[in-house]
């Protein structure tokens, strides 16, 4: 099929590369000239494992073309997908739909009869229907349909997720448009991926409800981890014990420094606003937001407490800055809330992240960026793991204990076995588990 995608951001580009790899003929249109020049030189403007190679493959084969806006590309398309940003508005904190409106106004005059316009961007309830009305106003004679087709890709695993979807959700109003969306995803439908056909608003809400539910799961396990710390219970056992219940499931039960990223914080805020707008309060969603905001402050306090209640003048090595591993994305990263508190308290921060340092340096100007973990750790009074990068699992801990002024590791991602690290000479503080000091090996309960 001929697919035109508006926006070569994260969602647009991954979707464009993935769909062209499936055999569709895809044009991805980007209006930001700087980003476009970058892409046309074959460079992916963000870090995503596998994307660089896939982009090279599909652009060289001609299956994907990345270009500036083109009327012809819109006119040729069986399906136009809108994949522009829907950020939180700076003024009112509501979802800012200006990029959606710009995209709609741009495409509407050039669409061909029989085209489907699908929203890939995460949009509030009713937006896809409003898009239909906007197109109709601009191009009243056109025979077209709209569809809502949310994406569920995770950063850092986006290509895996694209190729192995748990489900595909499509909201449509007409059978012919549904038929086109089925043809688009025929490859997955044939291999048994559930294809959830619903109406427009239901599809839009699936996206928000999924993200809010996952965020709630993370906030929940973080609060249970706090209770473990106060009571002497162990969160690893609790997570395993509940996760084996098939109604709960083992995923998204890793406690951490609080959730971040470009989606959860923005989407749960938008969902709570929809609750207000429709006079249908979402108190659980609101509690999740509050819990997560408090979490990040509590994590800063936890670090200060582990450092003996005072970090003034102390060198703290920070390992990991991105909101999670395998991405360079700093949007709403917990580091952005936690590190300013440590800085204010007088800590000297020496940070290292395998991919996010360029972005982080702008956002955390008071922190020094180290060239690698070893440089950050040298003579440090404490080390803090904020992001679960695989390379931190391979650190030489005995060497690290020797290099640090005081061998204290505060691991906010629970990457290691406490016993193991204590045996290597580290005083190990993790989340929801008893602290461990090296010799004599002793469990310290917070209770
Ligand atoms: C999330 C959803 O998982 C995707 O399905 C969705 O498509 C995407 O948002 C989006 O709306 O675009 P993403 O933001 O890439 O994906 O990251 P997640 O892997 O979901 O993690 C979100 C946050 O929760 C991260 O800060 C992560 O560290 C945290 N988290 C996750 C935990 O602290 N513990 C866990 O067990 C899982």
Can I get a quick summary?
Helix content is 44%, strand content 15%.
Explain the overall architecture.
- It is elongated, with a radius of gyration of 24 Å.
- The model has no long low-confidence stretch (mean pLDDT 96).
- Helices cover 44% and strands 15% of the residues.
- Helix 1 crosses helix 3 and helix 12 runs antiparallel to helix 13.
- With 447 residues, the chain is of the alpha/beta class.
- The strands form three sheets. The protein has an eight-stranded mixed beta sheet with strand order 3-2-1-4-5-6-7-8, sandwiched between helices.
- The structure holds uridine-5'-diphosphate-glucuronic acid.
- The site of uridine-5'-diphosphate-glucuronic acid has 20 residues, from helix 10.
Give short descriptive properties of this protein.
447 residues; alpha/beta; eight-stranded mixed β-sheet; six-stranded parallel β-sheet; 19 helices; 16 strands; binds uridine-5'-diphosphate-glucuronic acid
Report the helical percentage. Answer: 40-55%
Report Rg: 24 Å
| Biggest beta sheet summary | 8 strands, mixed
Return residue spans where pLDDT drops below 50 for at least 5 consecutive residues. none
The N- and C-terminal alpha carbons lie at a distance of 62 Å
**Widest sheet, order of strands:** 3-2-1-4-5-6-7-8
Secondary structure elements and pairings:
Layout (H helix, E strand, L loop, with lengths): L1 E5 L3 H12 L3 E5 L3 H8 L10 H11 L2 E4 L3 H6 L2 E4 L15 H10 L7 E5 L7 H12 L5 E5 L9 H6 L4 E5 L2 H10 L1 H5 L4 E4 L1 H32 L3 H9 L20 H14 L5 H24 L8 E5 L15 H10 L3 E5 L4 H7 L4 E2 L3 H5 L4 E4 L4 H4 L3 H7 L4 E4 L6 H6 L3 E3 L5 E3 L4 E3 L3
Parallel strand pairs: 1-2, 1-4, 2-3, 4-5, 5-6, 7-8, 9-10, 9-12, 10-11, 12-13, 13-14
Antiparallel strand pairs: 6-7, 15-16
Helix pairs in contact: 1-3, 5-6, 10-12, 10-13, 12-13, 13-14
The protein binds uridine-5'-diphosphate-glucuronic acid (UGA).
